[in-house]
Amino acid sequence: MVPRVKALILKLLNEHRVMTIATNRPDGWPQATMVGYVNDGFLLYCFVARNAQKYANILRDPRVSISLGSDAPRPLDIKGLSLAGKASEVTDQWEFDHVSGLRLKR
Fold first, then answer.
1. Of 22, 36, 76, 101, which one has the greatest count of Cβ atoms within 10 A?
2. CATH domain 3-105 topology
């Protein structure tokens, strides 16, 4: 990836706190939900309740799409990010504590 593009992506990730995450429901329809997130470089973390539909969706099918951005006074000033990836549950206690600390700093 071009260093300038990497820097722009990190800038966008660091400027926002909310993203849309789309998961696949059991019936095949997408489910898009706004969630708070933190990032550790290019790694994105969001907190999802275990009784939430999106948690069940991710356990069944880890493929997700994510978008974030903001409105701007002029259409050409709109900046956003859209990506696809695979989600997984954080089960390591050290990683969970690290992400919790990132969230508190945010």
1. 22
2. Pnp Oxidase; Chain A (2.30.110)
Sequence spans of domains, the chain: 3-105
Percent helix, strand, coil in the chain, to 5, is: 35, 35, 30
**What is the rounded CA–CA span in Å between residue 17 and residue 95?**
19
Measured between its terminal Cα atoms, the distance across the chain in Å is 27
Per-position b or e across 32-52, b if 16+ CB within 10 A of its CB: eeebebbbeeeebbbebeeee
Quote the pLDDT of residue 80.
87
Report the C-alpha gap between 87 and 77 in whole angstroms: 30
pTM for the full model? 0.85
Contact present, 61 and 16 (Cβ < 8 Å): no
Identify whether the C-beta of residue 83 lies closer than 8 Å to the C-beta of residue 63: no
The mean per-residue pLDDT over the stretch 74-80 comes to 73
